Amino acid sequence: MTSSWFERQRGFLDYSLSCLWRRKGRNLSLIAVYSxxxxxxxxxxxxxxxxxxxxxxxxxxxxxxxxQRTVGGRHSLIPVDYxxxxxxxxxxxxxxxxxxxxxxxxxxxxxxxxxxxxDFALPAxxxxxxxxxxxxxxxxxxxxxxxxxxxxxxxxxxxxxxFDGATELMTADLILMxxxxxxxxxxxxxxxxxxxxxxxxxxxxxxxxxxxxxxDFPDTRPILKxxxxxxYTSLFGWRSGYVVxxxxxxxAAFLIFTWDKATGLSAEERAExxxxxxxxxxxxxxxxxxxxxxxxxxxxxxxxxVLAAYVHVFLASATLFEHALKGWAVLYPSFELRPTVDGxxxxxxxxxxxxxxxxxxxxxxxxxxxxxxDTVMRQx
Amino acid sequence: xxxxDEITKTxxxxxxxxxxxxxxxxxxxDTPSVSVLKGPSGxxxxxxxxxxxxxxxxxxxxxxxxxKEITGLPERFAAETRRKTFGFIFQNYNLIRGLTVxxxxxxxxxxxxxxxxxxxxxxxxxxxRLRMDGKAGQRVELLSGGEMQRTAxxxxxxxxxEVVVADEPTAHLDSALAAILLESLAALTSEGKTxxxxxxxxxxxxxxxxxxxxxxxxxxxxxxxxxx
Amino acid sequence: MIKPLRKSAVFAAFFSxxxxxxxxxxxxxxxxxxxxxxxxxxxxxSVTRTLGxxxxxxxxxxxxxxxxxxxxxxxxxxxxxxxxEHFPSGSMVLPPEHLVRPKPSGPKVKPR
Lengths: 380, 228, 112
Fold this sequence. Notes:
The complex is a heterotrimer.
Chain A: H1 5-22, H2 24-59, E1 65-71, E2 74-76, E3 78-79, H3 81-87, E4 92-98, E5 100-105, E6 110-115, E7 126-129, H4 131-136, E8 144-148, E9 154-162, H5 168-171, E10 174-176, H6 179-186, E11 192-193, E12 195-200, H7 206-216, E13 220-224, H8 225-233, H9 241-263, H10 267-278, H11 283-315, H12 319-326, H13 343-369, H14 374-379
Parallel strand pairs in A: 6-10, 7-9
Antiparallel strand pairs in A: 1-2, 1-12, 1-13, 3-11, 4-12, 5-6, 7-10, 8-9
Helix pairs in contact in A: 1-11, 2-8, 2-9, 2-11, 9-13, 11-13
Chain B: E1 2-11, E2 19-29, E3 34-38, H1 45-52, E4 60-65, E5 68-69, H2 75-85, E6 86-89, H3 101-106, H4 116-129, H5 145-157, E7 163-167, H6 175-189, E8 194-198, H7 202-205, E9 212-217, E10 220-226
Parallel strand pairs in B: 3-8, 3-9, 6-7, 7-8
Antiparallel strand pairs in B: 1-2, 1-4, 4-5, 9-10
Chain C: H1 7-32, H2 34-51, H3 63-66, H4 89-92, H5 97-100
């Protein structure tokens, strides 16, 4: 009789699959639940990694520094002439007053971001809008948007242009307009701006320039690009609430499985182990068979879960997370994420989903399997 | 020849529940033959069978099969010897429920890692010889008592053992089924196999094909009868 | 008699199909869509550069969530980030680094 390592392993796998197949319903639903847990966790990992990387790349282009004025600890309007003084600081390439603000549209109960860029190319009665605005504004007749100005008068602007839908992650809720209508709607008086955006020649000088600005303009606070980027690279850390809730749920589910497995070796299973020992199986043979059982279930759950997560996040635009991210907001950008997969994280996930489960399958059997096989003869 | 020298087995040694299941048992069993261990329950039949079959280590003494010692081997080797040398038939057959006849028959062959095709063909041949060929794909709990029995026999023979050990194989059978079982066991001697049966069933002990009857009581052999 | 397939063969076939699909997605799909995403990234970068944008449009429910990087310096938002008013965006964003970092032990002021 030729014996081979491979045939032996395959024989054990055959046997454990036959045993699993006896309780198809139970074991298939186990795999389904297990895959779902893996799916949730890997969806979170895929989504947050991809979004974080995308933000890192995009925000490289953000202004090197934003200077806000604060009054009573709150963000306040900044005089435009501050910009000229800041422009004169050595190392500053440009200091542009930015005009932007929020607009709450009653009919759609939705918030939009208004902006008046200095080089706005359209006529004063036109706006350029993000595609999210077109989607949520409500009835738009003949491309006209009705605004309510600060003094309560209606102001009608027509849509001259829309942003490319591909840029929705940054532009979904933007409404660009000329300075005149913007000041009327937002109520920002002449000579004031929302904040000042600084472009700086040498990024290494940012810190020095920020210190100088804090000193020269004590009523302002500078926000560095580095801080802006950090806000988004630390966004969705694993400690953040939603992820913790997900992980805690997944962990609890897994612990219930574990508990059930570790304590619930039924009399029938014990009797079967006795039979196997009786017909000549070794303790290590039984453990090997159980290893294949645990590995078959957990590897299947891992592959199916990660597969589903990839499809969900990168092919279906993370539809399940949309509700979570959307929250109270009416407007949510539709965006596709660039597939980014971190091999290390995936390996950790593989390790965490396969090893503990397999161990939990083997350990309770161990105790039964080391008993003397003659007990099976006595059980009769 | 199976030589059993001074086998002693003590359970719970040193405790108040200490119990001597076997007291210096000495036996010579010819191969091939059909030998029956008889005696009331608690006489040590099952313990002796499991010591011979390598399932239980004796407290002292040794067992030799064709001159080779098989006691005192480490568990790995004991299991290895056991599965190549012995085939086991239990009370109630001890089939694994939910699996098919073929899957049950293949179980003892799995740890040996033989080529699947060869092992399966051997199993199907065995089943055919036991007139079970149509039932290979049937789940065992749907079988009749006689079919379960033949499945258990096929399982005991799958690794082509030299010795088939049966513990009270007729305990739960009516006399017709018991007779069929004994016939099938007796037929094995013509293939050069040795059959060891523990039983207190008179039907077994008085059967004509039995070569050797060993009567046991309180852990000792009290009487031996060799028939020609 | 039709010989039934071995269970390990069926399992291996199923598992390798799933694993191959996964490997295909993980390794091939990103390359396949790469240029489209490069283009999209360039568009995002260009609009960010020309308009001087600082924040993505992820949470539009309130000003301190729409422009997270421009929100108050002294607290994560206006309140603690786990405050229910900001659920769920509040529960997804970490408080600013300087708030969660343990405070440096400076010279203590002795009470007179």
